[in-house]
Each structure stands twice: as structure tokens, then as C-alpha cells.
Amino acid sequence: MGKEIVLSGIRATGNLHLGNYYGALSKFVRMQDDYDCLFFIADLHALTTSPDPKQLHENVKNIICEYLAAGLDPEKATIFVQSDVPEIPELYLLLNMHVGIGELMRTASFKDKARKQLGIKSESEDIEKEIIGTDSNKRVNAGLLTYPTLMAVDILIQKAHKVPVGKDQEQHLELTRRFARRFNSFYGVDLFPEPTNFDFGGAPVKVPGLDGSGKMGKSEGNCIYLIDDEKVLRKKVMRATTDTGPTEPGQAVSAPVENLFTLLELTSTPEVVKHYRDAYADCSIRYGDLKKQLAEDILKVTLPIRERYMEIRGDEEYLGRVVKAGAEKARERASKTLKEAREIMGIRKFY
Ligand code: TYM
After folding, report:
1. Where are the beta strands (DSSP E) in the chain?
2. Which residues pair with 40 in a beta bridge?
3. Cβ–Cβ under 8 Å, residues 288 and 30
4. Are strands 78-81 and 36-42 parallel, antiparallel or unpaired?
5. In this model, does residue 146 exceed pLDDT 80?
6. Which residues lie with the beta carbon below 6 Å from any ligand 1 atom?
């Protein structure tokens, strides 16, 4: 029996941070030995938030390097750039015929990003009315609305079974399953498997930010990048938001401090975590010590990645070879699936 197919990608919107690492990339690396893996750089998805063209190309390159630096091996996993697979945009057009505008408009990430594009701050505003009735210099692009279709196609065109992603992508995965089911049942076929998230048995991860917020994110200015140098990284951690400290034994931990514990749980040993949890519980904790320890443990993860990143970044020839071979492999299955989908939908040639 063949290996199960795994596919995942990361948008080319900047350097990768610890959220991308623990939510996605570290799992990619662990999965590459046991599954038929494809990992890509989602540059078409990045277009939905209008990047500067030069920057977009740089971002794609950075992520290729970060994938390799973190330990992805092109001999084991297929590494490719989304826009190198033209079958994806074609199937995206076809699948959109089975996707409702309403279900796309209800997606949390769409509402969130649409609010940003329209400059709306409050959660409660009637976003649907704003989108339809808005004046011409403020608009939400249609690519943003159909983002989940494109993501579903990335997955379905490879007939992937497992999709390692962080918690924030679960709604998109749910839509992918729904679209697959709908297509299969509409045409009475069994073309697309329904993919699931994968986390080595644990719950999907959500890596918190350093500013007390719930999620580390590229746009939030609260993150640690895998390629931050030692000085910058230490400084960021030392400046992380905390509180004035516990005043009585057994006191509940505030959200910003719990975030630091979550980061410590991801990067340190259970003994270290226990030490600081106990110190919190008996009020002897010093946040400065906790942060020093945290910075130390994060650096153990990120510095080797940074070093390798610096080594390979200049080798454009090698990077080109990796993604060219990756695109060829990714296109093999993609073109087969596209052909099947076209046939099923009745698009057949006369010649
Ligand atoms: P993106 O680029 O926003 O994030 C890439 C991956 O990093 C994870 N992630 C996090 N995980 C835990 N905690 C965080 N703070 C955190 N921040 C980011 C995300 O869950 C994701 O796994 N739509 C996708 C890209 C995509 C894709 C796909 C993924 C396009 N097509 C097909 C899988 C399969 C996205 O925007 O991820």
C-alpha cells in the first residue's frame, strides 16, 4: 500500500515566526520520513493582501530557505511554489462553481481581513452591508473572498489525506471537506478524499504572542522570527508583556504570563516548566529569570535554523533546482486530478 499523502503550505507574506514553526513547519519536518509529503509556498494566496511585487518574490525565496534550513529534505519531500503549478488556478475556477458566496462571506478569516481592507475597527459593524455598498476606492478584493476555494484546491488537487496546520486554519479545512463532499456527491463520484488536520495525536497548536495577545502573527508585531539574531531575540523576549506578579499562593495566572508559560512548554523541558510553575504558585517567581530561560531555550531551536538559512540563501542555483524539481513532481498528480475533474464536469475535447 502507498504512503498517505500529506500537503501543507505557508503564505509568502514575510519571514516565518515561532507560530508557523510550531503550528506547521516542525510537523512538516517530522512527517517527511513516513508520508508522501508535499510542502509549498503559497504565493497566490499572498496576493490577496496586495504585496509589493519585489517583496513578494523575496518572501517566496525566504520561505524556501526557511523550509530547507529547518530540515525539510528535497530528497524526501516535494517542495514547490504554488504559482509554478498552473493546474491549481484552473481547478480553482472549476471548483468555484460549487461554492456559495454566502458560505465564503461567513468565514472568520474573510470577515477579519475584509474589515482590515475596509478600515473597520469594530467587530460589531455590519460587514456584509459595507462590502456590498462600499464606495469605489474602498473595496474588498474577490480573491480574498474565494481564498478558501484556492486553499481547498491546493489540498484536493493532490488528493491529500493529512494537512498539518495550526488551529487558526481549521475552519478552512472544514470548508475543504465540505467542498470535497459536495463535489463528490453532486457528480456521484469519489474523486476527492476528505482531509484532516494532523498533530501527532495532540491538539492543534496556537502559539501566543509576546504582547499578551492570543496569537503570534506576522502582522501583529508580536512575534519571534526563526531568523532573528541572538540580540534581537533576547530583547524581544525580555520586553514581553507580563504583570506585577502573584501576591498570594495559588493565584490564577494572567493571560500575558500564561502566554510565556505556553512558549516555555513548547521550547523547554518539563522540569524547567515545572520549576517556574511552582515558583509562580509560591510567589517566588521572578519574571526576568523566566524570560532569560525562555530566550535561551528558544535560541536553541532557532539559532541552528538561522545559521543554515544564512548558508543557503546565497545559493540561488540550488534553490532554483529544488523548486523546479518540486514543481515537476507536484504537477504530475495535479494534472491527473485536473483531467479527471474536467471529464467529470463534462469538459471534453472534440479533437
Ligand atoms: P499562514 O501562512 O497564515 O500560516 C502558515 C501555518 O502556520 C500556522 N500558524 C500558527 N500556528 C500556531 N500558532 C500561531 N500563532 C500560528 N500562526 C500561523 C498556520 O496555522 C499555518 O499552518 N491558508 C494558509 C496557507 C495555505 C495552506 C494551503 C495551508 C494555503 N493553502 C493548503 C495548508 C494547505 C495560511 O494562510 O497559513
Report:
1. 5-11, 36-42, 78-81, 162-163, 196-197
2. 9, 80
3. no
4. parallel
5. yes
6. 7-11, 19-20, 22-24, 42, 45, 151, 154-155, 163, 165-166, 168-169, 172, 205-207, 215-217
Measured CA to CA, the distance from residue 291 to residue 295 in angstroms comes to 6
pTM for this entry: 0.95
Instruction: Please compute Rg for the chain using Cα positions.
Output: 22
Length of the chain: 351
Ligand 1 atom nearest to CA at 205? 12
Query: Would residue 215 show up in a list of annotated catalytic residues for this protein?
Result: yes
Q: How far is the CA of 9 from the centre of ligand 1 (A)?
A: 7
For the chain, report the end-to-end CA distance as a whole number of angstroms. Answer: 37
132: alpha, beta or left? (left if phi > 0; alpha if psi -120 to 50): alpha
Confidence at 130, pLDDT banded by 50, 70, 90: confident
User: What's the CA gap between 287 and 243, in Å, rounded?
Assistant: 9
Question: For residue 226, is pLDDT > 70?
Answer: yes
Q: Cα(43)–Cα(81) distance, rounded to whole angstroms?
A: 7
Q: Which atom of ligand 1 is nearest to the CA of 223?
A: 15
Written as one letter, the residue type at 140 is: V
Query: What are the C-alpha distances in Å from 61 to residues 8, 32, 73, 83, 337?
Result: 17, 21, 16, 13, 28
Q: State the cell numbers at 54.
A: 519585489
Which uninterrupted H or E stretch holds 29?
A: helix 26-31
Torsion of CA 66, 70, 74, 77, to 10 degrees: -110
Output the nine-digit C-alpha cell for 70.
529547518
SS (H, E, C) 108-157: HHHHHHHHHHHCCCCCCCCHHHHHHHCCCCCCCCHHHHCHHHHHHHHHHC
pLDDT digits (tens, 9 = 90+) for 303-321: 999 999 999 999 999 999 9
Q: What is the pLDDT of residue 123?
A: 72
